[in-house]
Amino acid sequence: MRGKIISKEKCIEALNSSLCFCDVIFGWDINDACYTDTSFSGWHKGYPDLELFIDENTIRYVPWDGNIPLLIADLSGKNTIDSVCPRTLLKNVAAECKAMGYNPLFAHELEWYNFKEDAQTLKEKSYKNISPLTSGMFGYSILRPTQYSEYFNSIHQLMLSYGIPIEGMHTETGPGVYEAAIKYDSILNAADKSVLFKAGVKEIAAKHGIMASFMAKWNMNFPGSGGHIHQSIWDAETNHNIFYDATDKYRMSEKCKQYLAGQLYCLPFILPMYAPSINSYKRLLKGTWAPTTVSWGIDNRTASLRLINRDEHAIRVETRVPGADVNPYLGMAASLASGLYGIKHKLKLKQKPVNGNAYSDESLTALPSTLLEAVDKMKSSSLPQELFGKTFTKHFIQTRQWEIEQYKLHVSEWELNRYLEIV
């Protein structure tokens, strides 16, 4: 929510006194195609306004837009309505973690493609022959960022002024693709920063005549865009990382093993929380730097969960399933809730770490390969309701079923090329 430049107090007072409509909190309304048949929104509800609650702690000023103030609002405190709000869900899971005596520290690592396009040129081209910002694969290139240094450097500098420090940014493998590692923070702040980073990069890019896209997989010939979630849990009293045990073979504490076991156990049943769109599953393919199995490994980028265990401060879990299209609130809530599930139930980490290629290990359980399959898996279990509540789970599944139905109506270019003349 943005407003004219006034004092922090006046800004908050003005915003708190107003009613604002925000249908996007119900899920993913893309291209103004509103949900029509979910429990909380649709024609049967008349699409009414909703009262949002401003989080005063989120105030910041947008450095590329005249330093106008921006605050984040959610539905917290609105009885049953707040149970379908992604940010409120994350707050509830974080509160559960704190009640257990832990502080969750999270960070997002996001990849995105950059194009010499805008909304108008894409439409005129019918989304064909799209021009990437640079050519070639060139991961970790020194040359490529210098060729658009004004854009590249402005993201670093403006995000720092925006209160979103970037620990590192570089080119990834693919034409015109960058990756940024946002500095870790408490889980709610980390999710807020991810949401604002994605929106902010798009705005900054547009000022440079560039279009930034966080689509999971835009082209079959190039790697997809990941949205990896890094996480560690710290003891609230002693302020030590509960994942670390110097005496263990892998430097993993029992709590760390339980946390990993929880994520592995829950993963097949909550996959849509990480991979919410039809396109998400085009990224989750063998040999594409994205996972396809329920697996973990020590510094292994072919597994779903990568343990980084160099020392006590740095030991953490990287959940590599999410793409850049993930809703940060939902992805982080799913990661923490499933990890805590393992700690609460003292689950044993029975699976050994994958050494080498997780794609070729036939003993590993495969992840659902489509949104339909993933939603059916989520519906088949009571586990998501235990993690996220019955109301949220029901609504979220309805939104994903709605997305599937929209896809079923579509006739693709592939179908036209293959069937139009010959059948």
Task: Give a structural overview.
This protein has 423 residues and is an alpha+beta fold. The chain folds into 2 domains: 1-84 and 389-423, no CATH class; 92-388, Glutamine synthetase/guanido kinase, catalytic domain (Creatine Kinase, Chain A, domain 2). It is built from 13 helices and 11 strands. The protein has helices at residues 8-16, 86-99, 119-124, 143-147, 149-161, 187-207, 254-274, 280-283, 328-344, 371-379, 383-388, 390-408, 413-419; strands at residues 53-62, 68-74, 102-115, 166-171, 177-182, 185-186, 211-213, 227-235, 296-298, 305-308, 316-319. The strands form 2 sheets. Strands 3, 4, 5, 6, 7, 8, 9, 10 and 11 form a 9-stranded mixed beta sheet that branches. Strand 1 (53-62) and strand 2 form a beta hairpin. The termini are far apart. The model is unreliable at 17-28 (pLDDT under 50).
CATH architecture assignment of the largest domain: 2-Layer Sandwich
What is the strand content? 15-25%
Give Rg in angstroms: 21 Å
* Low-confidence sequence ranges: 17-28
Distance between the termini: 52 Å
**Helix and strand run:** HEEHEHHHEEEHEEHHEEEHHHHH
| Number of domains as seen in the coordinates | 2
Q: Biggest sheet, open or closed, and with what strands and sense?
A: 9 strands, mixed
Descriptors for this entry?
423 residues, alpha+beta, Creatine Kinase, Chain A, domain 2, 2 domains, nine-stranded mixed beta sheet, two-stranded antiparallel sheet, 13 helices, 36% helix, globular
